[in-house]
Amino acid sequence: MPNGKSILVDTSLCTACRGCQVACKQWNNLPGTKTKQIGTYQNPQDFSAFTWKLVRFAEGKNGNGKPYWYFFSDMCRHCMEPPCAETIQGFVKGGVIRDEATGAVVYTEKTKTVPFEKVRSSCPYDIPRQNPKTKVMAKCTMCIERIKNNMIPACAKSCPTGAVVFGDRSQILAKAEKRVAELKKSYPEAMAINAEDVRVIYIVTDDPQKYWKHAAA
Amino acid sequence: MTNHWIDLQHSDVVLIQGSNAAENHPISFKWLMKAKERGAKIIHVDPRFTRTSARADFHTSLRSGTDIAFLGGMIKYILENEKYFKDYVVNYTNASFIVDERFDFKDGLFSGYDPTTRKYDKSTWAYKKDANGIPEKDFTLQNPRCVFQLLKKHYSRYDLEKVSSITGTPVGDLKTVYEMYSSTGVKDKAGTVMYALGQTQHTTAVQNIRTLCMIQLLLGNIGICGGGVNAMRGEPNVQGSTDFAILSSYIPGYLPAPQASLKTLDEYLKRITPKSADPRSANWQQNYPKYMVSLLKAWYGDKATKENDFGYSWVPKLDDGQDCTILNMIDNMYEKKIKGLIVIAQNPTVSLPNADKVREAMTHLDWFVHVNIFDNETASFWKGPGLDPKKIKTEVFLLPAAASVEKQGSQANSGRWVQWKYEAAKAPGDAIYTGDIVIRMVTKLKELYKKEGGATPEPILNLKWDYADEKGRFDPLKVARTVNGYFLEDITIGDKTYKKGECVPSFTLLQADGKTSSGCWINSGSFAQDGTNLMARRKKDDPTGLGLYPQWSWAWPVNRRIIYNRASVDLSGKPYNPKRPLLAWVDGKWVGDVPDGPWPPMEDTKNGKYPFIMKPDGVSSLFGPGLGDGPFPEHYEPLEGPMAKNLLSSQMNSPIIKIFTKECDKYARCDPRFPFVMTTYSSTEHWCTGAITRWQSWLTEAQPQVYVEISEELAQIQGIKNGEKVKVESARGSLTCVAMVTTRFRPFKCGDQIIHQVGMTYNYGWLFPRDCGDTANLLTPTVGEGNTGTPEYKAFMVNVKKV
Prior knowledge:
The structure holds two protein chains of two kinds. By secondary structure, chain A is of the alpha+beta class. Helices cover 26% and strands 20% of the residues of chain A. In chain A, α2 (83-91) runs antiparallel to α3 (116-122). By secondary structure, chain B is α/β, with parallel strands linked by helices. At the A-B interface, α1, β2 and β3 of A face α2, α3, α20 and β26 of B.
């Protein structure tokens, strides 16, 4: 596989406007689901067959008593060696497409024959979900049909601050490295999460666990 | 904005106060993040830790309604630590002006206050003038009666401990903000101020913003790249609608609205045209007669002649002292003095304060016309909560309108860039342009007046009304050209001749003799002389490298991208900041942005002019005698507040505050029934009242229902758990909603007093979705700012209880 594509999610630039969350639904024709206010800005509460991109909100207090509020625009990492693909392929051939040019990991309808919990538990980032009716599994496709038509993924397109950026993997890796070095001056904990293993790379300025329990593998 | 969105990237320190820019103006953060990459620091001052705070370098909170105390403390800090930009202060502000001996300030009140009328006689708020009528000055700034010394004296009372006791901001945090921000009071640093409704929706709103302006002037931050006082405009065309006189005290181009006692054009022009005896002051407003006559020519065409005062008598006038601001209009409706109402693209039963009062007032109407893209709580008020439609006599008409993206026309953004846009889609069904609705209504009115006559038919019959195309439809280009203005005769100005029918390429060419027209003088120049629509330009050339993009759309005035830009250079015309030279005097001409006037630099004592051309004295005002509540901003408590007294004086509230006294307007100060401060706001996911966004399932999915944000400390006191249903009550109304218990609100320590603050959005209404709740405006008070009548949405008192 060539170097392929990558997405950089720089949480230090994210304002949690949720443009990406909505743009994902718009492009992929996913419905707005019925939600309730339960005491958080985060909604829907979690991924589903109808929500493949979700901004997670995490708040707390710093050592100095001042609040922090971390935003984590969560999505499939499109792993370099995706364990979910291995699991699915073990049950059915053609359940997953791993696109040569981009490295995108895309589920097909055949996933409906695969035991869902096995797939979900094989993902270190807790991404796969299942359509309760059709049993087909669903997650982010990297907007592969947009990429094939020379467009960038919907989430990157919608981002006003450049927190979600799409590009060639080599360029994204270089950008991530440079950005982390810059951020480390103010935030010693700054890091790019699992950059070697995933195509969707998150930059955080604090312990990834404070953002989301499945932020890092 | 004095500056524009892209310019935010040039700032070194950004002070966001009274704005949740990241949530309500997301695109601003594109440029702020670029500034940050350059090393800029962002400060956010807000009662609540928001998505803006999350991206700021430093956030601190203040109790709602205490901005003047907070910022007054900053003025004191800047003056006493000599952080101000001395050259700028001496040359470009009125710091050196000597003030009238009779001017005084005592215990919260300036000289001239009459408690019975609750108004000031402003005659003592004046400058001492020399024999030529020019203000006396002391450029050493030492004279105890000069503005600088009076300013210093006024804010000497705003010490850190006092400010902290009022605002609830820890002293250490105050110091941090003051130090960070005042670091921009040097030649090569720029500080910008971003504000929004968090400043404008207070009983002290105008003075809040003036305090921000004064800080910017002391630091030399106005007129420069990366600086300015920047109002974030929330809707695509708020700037445009303001330019076109959406406010009742103006007619287009910010000309004052005529009053009944000004019976002739001459009397009106005399009243609105300021004079300056100083030959070095451009006093641009001396041109107002040209703009007014050109406006009358645009309105009445050939019917407007010199003999009939260009139709001035046909212009509707305010009675002297008449208040047509929104709270008073609703009060009049409530009293059944207003019989009919047309509402275009608003949802006042959700957006206006004291919503129960507004909703009742609606039932008092005989007829009501609503123009909107969707049904909303106002259009359907007659079937609202607690109302029996059978008992409502109001006849309601709902006219479907095209949405903004379905219309061609101009749109002015916060940075005054007027951009021409096209229809992205055809409006569905029977929906038409609002312009078409207005054209049809006025055309019908003209027919009726012609047929039936009436008390005063002239204002309608004499209206030039040629805005339709050959098929009778609203023609946005015709309207825009009328706004720009035409030469109405062949005319020679200087060595150039302009032909009848050509577009006026700049307001500097407008005439007071009826030979030109212009529907809004500030937009004159949006078309070239040959009729080219400059608003439609899309060229990305950037000759200064500062992101001014002079050939992208068109900016008022005269395509100037940063106003007051001659204040960015020293007296010889050299840029103060050579790294970001907005303007420079090179070989006898200005290079860079379009300068604020063609005159040479100030060191040319014969031809040079002061840089603040819209002020009669040519300099900016640290002492501002024009407002109704004082020449220096002073801290007053909100009408409803938690404090038993104002810690700075015995004057509790703004002395000119606009109060309503009906039973439904009741308020409660320091009342144990309503112990918590509340503020209201909007979220990213919904737009204003949610009238558009609540029909959008991806947005209601993200923010489904009304909530109140409360601190963990308050939740514990009230026994409330996160996500539980609570009742929020004020003296005027109540609603139930979901409690969002958060670390992002924290109690304030104001002296010995612990004060809790909570907050809610006004994004919801009863109509749709059915389970989303209702507006926070059921709680807000009917009280207005004294100069403008803007309602107080940001500081009032409530209780929050478990249901």
